Amino acid sequence: MIINGKTLAQAARKHIKEISCQQLVRQLTQTAVIIDIRESAELASGTIPGAVHIPRGVLEMQIATHPMVAGEAEPLAKLAQQDIYLYCQSGARSALAALSLQQMGFERIYSLSGGFSAWQQTL
């Protein structure tokens, strides 16, 4: 059976944790790990304060380069101790990315429900 991307994202949401824009606002601190997984061209519309850009296509390979763990001997282990908030434009790619990071062993992963579009409408 062939499914489309929307259906795949809906299936992923059954296995991940999502966070609302209001909940994310309460989490915004200097130590929050917020990752914008949109493509570079999408950043022109703005970003969430404190977010680090790591595109979805390279997230699994480049998450260890997050500035919070720069210079750490075990960057993935250090990141795994943090709550990590992912967002894309609509919440579909971040749901898939959250599932992928869970498969890598991360447990404290959250996808922003509705993505940056919801963020813009909320604030």
Order of helices and strands: HEHEEHHEHEH
Enumerate how many helices there are, as a single number: 6
What is the topology, as strand order, of the major beta sheet? 1-5-4-2-3
Ranges where pLDDT stays below 50 over 5 or more residues in a row are: none
Q: End-to-end distance, in Å?
A: 40 Å
Major sheet characteristics: 5 strands, parallel
Mean of residue pLDDT values = 96
The oligomeric status of these chains comes to single chain
List keywords for this structure.
5-stranded parallel β-sheet; alpha/beta; globular
What do these coordinates show?
This protein is α/β, with parallel strands linked by helices and 123 residues long. Helices cover 37% and strands 14% of the residues. The protein has a five-stranded parallel beta sheet with strand order 1-5-4-2-3. The longest helix has 12 residues. The chain is globular.
